[in-house]
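Notebook, p. 212. Picked up where the previous page left off. The plan for this session was modest: take the two constructs that came back from the sequencing core last week, fold each one, and keep the raw output in the notebook itself so nobody has to go hunting through shared drives later. Recording the first one now, exactly as returned: residue sequence, then the structure token string.
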Amino acid sequence: GGGGGGGGRQAPAPRVLSLSELERLHGQLARTTMVTEANRDAVVEVLRAIAEVMIWGDQNEPEVFDFFLEAQTLSHCVRLLGASTSRQTSVAVQMLQTMSIMIQNIRRDTSVYYLFSNNHINRLIAYDFDFANEELLAFYISFLKTVSLRLNEGTVQFFFQGHTDPPSFPLYTLATRFVDHPESMVRIAVRTVTLNVYAVPDEATRAFVVEDAKNYFPAVIGAMLRRCLAHDAPGVGHGALETANAEACDMLSYVSDVLALEAPGLTGAVLQHFDQGLVEPLLLGSLLVGPDARAGEHDDVSLQKGTALHLIGRVMEIVTHAALVNGLVCRLLAPAGQCQPVEESAESGAGGEGAAGVAPPTGGAAEPPQHGGGADGRNQLRSALLEALKCGDGRSALAALQCLAAIVRSETPSTAILERVGLLPASRVKKQRLLEALVRDDDADGAGGQDSGGSDGGSQACADTGAQASPQQLEVLAAILARLEGDMRVNDAALVERRRQLACWLLLQLAPQPAACQGAADGVNDSAMALESTALERLSLFAGGVWCDMLPHLLDEEWAALRKAVCGGRPPRQAMEFVGSAVAPSVRTSSSRDGSKSSARSAHDLFTAAGAFMAARIASLALRGMPLPNALVSEAEAGSAALDAAAAFERLGSEMDDLSGVHACVGNVPVSEGAVIRLEGADALPCRVAFERGREHAVFLVLTTNRSVSTSVSDSQGSASSGTVRGGPMSGRGVGALLLVERSVDAEDMGVVRAVAHLAGTRAERDENHPCWLHICVRSPLPPRASAVSALTSSKRAVRHVTDGKWTLAFRDEHSCAAAQAFAAFATAQLRETCRAALAVRVG
């Protein structure tokens, strides 16, 4: 019969890890001539048990492994793959898993050699598995990775068959078939296998993979190119963009790892394919055409300019091969005629094998094309990058800043090349000077008083690095300032904050030393000071706006946040993330019922103006060589300003007494909705208001200058009628409020606060047709940042939350109505003057 003596579904005997147990398991395999549905589970169990016994024997009983080899147990295992009435996936999976476990856990080198020496592993590698089964493919590729981890000069001979014609290397070539497999774990395993192969210092093996590189690496670069193009695919969602970007970065890391091995012959092949297949046609080529243009040899592989710049920045961040990075930086940013890297001594700190600035080998190919043939003789790529930074759309400008920040942050480019392109950070200059000082001190000590004047000549140029701001450096600084100026008038809030963070970080890194800020640098300094002046003028307009009470605190918080983001050694992490072409929506031009700008839009404009001023202040300080203060105002100045404000509010009460006989409710009065306060006749003006259509309520209008104001934010079912909304409280930090207070049913002299309006956000106007009616416009109950965010969305729910309110109050006579309007307007004016004084302390 075809089943053999080892078939059946009997339960396995209790496991005993011993030589006799392996003999028993071997006997079962030897007697099994065919795998059927009837004996499949028993065969799977035998294969699993063999792995356990073999691992135990390797560590405890060497005779176990001797028997395994002498009895050719592995040959029976491989034989059973083809001895099946149908494709038995479970047997194949267990076989691969058993071999992976054995190879991974066997400790003795001799055991590994014996296991690899009989060609059974190669037979298993080359077996025609059914890779349509995803589980089987996963175990197969994991098996290849496990085998590759055991490769060295001694074991590679069992897999690389150099004696055949042509030579073959199944472990390598069969793995590379899956280089662009849809499953990410399979692709990662393939990269691991190839890296382990490349790391083996065997000349014959290396000659094989170098020859195979002409087939493999075009496939790698092609897969990378498709990931890059996926960034600009029409209709791609945010999740798909993140996936494409992550996969492109993974493949860049793989290329960097291959180059880091410095394998002779392989490095040149990889550089050639990487440059000719990706860098030149796609990344650099896309900078010279419009976002929708298709021109030249590579009509089907153009990217949007912002995408190309971001990916170039990723290359700078991830790849650490000095020759490649130096060459790319030169081609991208060096002045025309200076785009070829130059050799640089090892003392420059660039690192890497050989001269840091040598152009990447191209394996006999033509030199990389230069892009200095513009009408003005400039480097076209540099012009395109700086143009995108200065005048491009928000996404392209962000990508240009990301690219520059990645170059400045990278330790790979040489000092000479960074200086040539105008991107030499002050930290690199400082470190280099310290190292040179230490070297000079050591030389002086070693000379024992002898004259060593000639020894410093080679490093004199390095010592002078950064002494004068170069034209290229000033050009970059001017472009960054131009971007900051342009961002004063943009409304893409989703991107402008990232651009400002990167711009400020770059300015702090690249600002020349004070001694270098002479002559040509004066123009950049003047531009920075003019930018700060313009930003301050725009910010000052909000000192009398609907959010003026929040402005001092907002400036303090925003300065602290921006300073923290830009003062680190690395660029702000979130600002370096990829942004797809589907950027956040522009600000809605919402307005109040009377046509004026809504408080939500005003809040957005306030944050835009505050951010612009903060960035301009940092730019001005950086270019003047001044440190950034921890806060806009010192504690002493803030305390003095607070005392002045408190005194002003105390005076406000007495000044209000002289205004039409109306008194102000001044003091520590609770001002959250639902609070109970004491009503005193002279402090409250009676009137009527309708919170709901057709239902009027008798209320009192009360003014408080309390320094802690709470409003309410409506829930999803809430209503914003008459300017008040119900729901959980959200505390603000405004100063002063108008209250609508309804008399309590429990006590005649007590009242319940029904609505709160921040004093700074109110505007009172009498009705032209009804002289006893007073219309009071009130701002959004949300804090300014939440209101600003809501201005960016078209969500109906968000619109309900931030709709500006309007109270219509009916007084008993014209005099009372006029008095209410007068004291509200007077209090608001006084509050805004106090806020202007607080602003002056912070920006003076």
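Okay, moving on. Second construct, recorded in the same format:
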Amino acid sequence: SSSHLKLGDAKYMSTALPVEKTDEESEQEKEEKEMIASMTKSDIKVNKDKPWLYDLGMKSMVPEWRKMFNPDTLLTDVSAGITVGCVAVPLSLAIAVASGVPPEVGLVTAAVSGVAGGLLGGTTLAITGPAAAISLLVVGAVQEHGLEALPVITLACGGLQVASGVTRLGVMAKLVPVSVIAGFTTGVGAMILSGQVPKALGLAAPAGLNPLETMAFVGENVAGINPAAAALALGVSGAMFALPKIHPKMPSALLAVGGATMATHTLGLDVSQIGAIPSGLEAFQFAIPALPPVDALPSLGITTFLIYAMTSAESLLSCAALEKMKKTSYKHSPDQELVGQGLANMGAGFFLGMPVTSVIARSSLNVKLNAESRLPALVQAAFVFSGVVFFSDSIATIPMPALSGMLITTGIGMLSPAEFKHCFAVQKLDAIPFAVTIGGMVAFGLAEGIGIGCLSAWALNYDYGKMDVKEINFPHKQQRPPSGDVTYFSNDNVVETVEDKEPVTIDFLQSKVATVETENVQLQGRVITLQTDKKQLEASVGTLTTENTHLLERLEAVEMENEQLRGLFDTLTTIETTTPESATLNSPSKSTIGWQLQGPINFASMFKIDDLIHRVEEMGTDEKVVVLDMQETTSVEFTGVEELVNRLVEVTEQNPGTTVQMWNCQDNLLNALKQCDPNERIARFCSIKDETPYHFPAKEEAKDVHKVPYWYDSPHFQPDAK
């Protein structure tokens, strides 16, 4: 073809040879530039008209409560609740011991908070209770303010969570980077592990030692180790590692601690035990916590806010992970989750309990047990309640080394959080806040370590600037992606032109249709010619008997060629595409809306992501294609990309006719999407390595939907491109 393909200020021949641009612009070029300049509008403006949750979300919970009495799932849910309760009893005891509070406080907290969290939480299958990750925060609070201040802290923490959920500020809790949460989890695991080793060996270590000092103390007192205590702790820890491998649904914690208790009394082992705890309903003491002195309020407020921030972040992180394990009819709501956890903490505070979160270990077991409703959360709470009321005497005989062995297993499991692996795979610099958080916790304390970790994460991402979202005005005429090899171009096929750094849409379908129409006419003529040849050959067969064999062979060849041409004709007429349906752009029944994301995508982008999702939701529930142009994305971080992916997936699940596509994904974003969206729920289209980011696909690339770009800046023609 001798026609030119015009893009921006440059002109390219269809043979990939550049042509000098003219000095004067034509009227058509000016109009095209003005149109492209209007495609990208200013920052999106969002009208967030979602009402506050004045009713605490109870209206949306009514259908969830009805499902608890479904006869088809009742037996499965009750069985799951009992099994989770078997795990919750020993774990709550162990976490209470690790938190420096009486053992019965852990049981009472689990029983009370499990009801409120189960009924009003934002995730159907989540289990609420004391968490190992928060235990050291509780230790610090008790050491600084006394045990009598703990109910006040728990109550205030719950009040902040309820207020955040009612005012729909659930996104605020996501501002804590996942790398810092992972560092916090690892640091807590290391401190739990080091703190329980002396107890597991029957040693009484002084309070206030850091992990290194604790290990030094153990080394200096090897002679005082109690062999019976060490054997019990080792046996419980080994059983908790081995039993789930035998059967994943087995209540390994209860079996391990129960076996250790039986061994202690059967063999008469000389080890410390939990001791007497309040029996019956006496353990559940409802009271309004007394206010602390006025001069203690500032430090108490800091402690409360820290526990509020970490319990909220830990709960939302756990529920997001739980949502990926098993989808339910009720969609996970961060705001409702904060309301549920807040009410759970307030309830625990009124019963002189300790802070709670949505705990991933018990929740994931609930999923594995095929739970379907919120009933297992209530059943496990009732199981814990029954244990306190009816079996307090048996609980009092549990050996302390057994609980230490359980906590050692928990601490080991926290040393390598999966979240950090994802963070590091996306951005290597996330290792800095991860390590700084751990180091700060060990050297200075929990609050200081978390603060230093957050500051380091913000500092690393500050220079990248903030994320911007620009709305794209698509032309009225839409197109679908090219299929197969694009053979011919002409001036009429170019519907948009673009200046530097501006998106442009190329109508490949029009080019393909024009090509097909031309070849269609040619093929029809060829088919007529072949049919004439066929008749002539048939006549020759009757008259030229000596050439009969040769003519028959020729006839078969013509018929074969005829069929091939008809097949090619049908193929070109239908213009079948190799693009999967999930990635098909702009079907005639769908409208296309789009935004261009500029700058970094990280934990500081939460509000912009929230604005974007609200803007998408404002577009209605009609079938549509949501396009995100990612060519201006500068850097990515796991927390931000995961939030963006999760929110976009929610949009597609709530509106089945909507598809979401990311265009011009660069390598760093593709790597992040592999970590956050391994199942490719969001369609993505990327550029080619070592080439100008935007070019026409070569023949061998055209069939690979993941290598076909649809937005063009400075086009680059590969040598083998047609």
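Notes on construct two before I forget. Confidence is low (pLDDT under 50) at residues 1-23, 476-508, 573-589, 688-722.
Flagging for discussion at group meeting.
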